[in-house]
Amino acid sequence: MSKLKDAKNILKQMEVPEKQQSDLCGYVLLALANLKEQDEWISAENNWIRIHDIIVFLGDWYEVFYAENSRETIRKQAIHHFRTAAFIEDNGKATNSPNYRYRLTSEMLELVQTYDSPNWSQEKDKFLDSHGSLVDMYRSKKKMQKLPVRINGEDFTFSPGKHNELQKLIIEEFAPRFAGNSECLYVGDTIKKDLVKNEEKLQELGFEITLHDKMPDVVLYSSDTNWIYFIESVTSVGPMDPKRIKELEEMTKNVTAGKIYVTAFLDFKTFKKFSDSLAWETEIWIADMPEHMIHFNGDRFMGPR
After folding, report:
1. Which residues sit opposite 230 in a β-bridge?
2. CATH code for position 235
């Protein structure tokens, strides 16, 4: 099967509307994954690229030639819908900036790398369970219901989906209980990657952040205790396992504030799926039981209550 047929089949199985199962959308997916005809899906990448780079890639490797004035067509027919489906993210620059770029989200990258493997069906279902499908979103006659959330005294909205439902609960339920009087320095959205990002404060605390770094889903800072809370919102992927802790330690090697690593789950059932992969010296919060924490911290809290 050709790579274009593969890409269109992926889009079909990801339940996008028929208009987004077109040759154009398939080619855009291949360009975003940096996949040439002879490449295997396991070798897919998610480098930051412009729409101009997509046009050049398709001409060079697939002999499919789009004019530069096709950029708006590519944006409207493919990019816009891919971002709504949480397939891709942008780098947060102004849309008219020459540095404005897109890439596959880490979840989408991990998913397409399993295509044509025994893990594909399970990983696809996980993704759709977390983010929903475009067909379901567009089937609704009313506008998608946004999730209102108040962050640092300002009103924001999250896009629909279980991942963002949990992030809303982290802000509204976890933070007041376990990170009182804290400030949210970072929180992303499945569509808008950097919904809140206080770069000045993050740098002041010693963060070293590049475009290649994956920030935790939520970062809170308490000046009262000089503690930073790194929180991953987990519905299907991404707990605080030893590999993730190592990545965050590297990103924050110059941070002197106390670091607290938290994995948040919607319910106990999801926690159980990940319990054997969670790192020691981390915390677990389950939204169904908001008053309590589970401590993977050895004997730090040993003793009578």
Report:
1. 219, 261
2. 3.40.1350.80
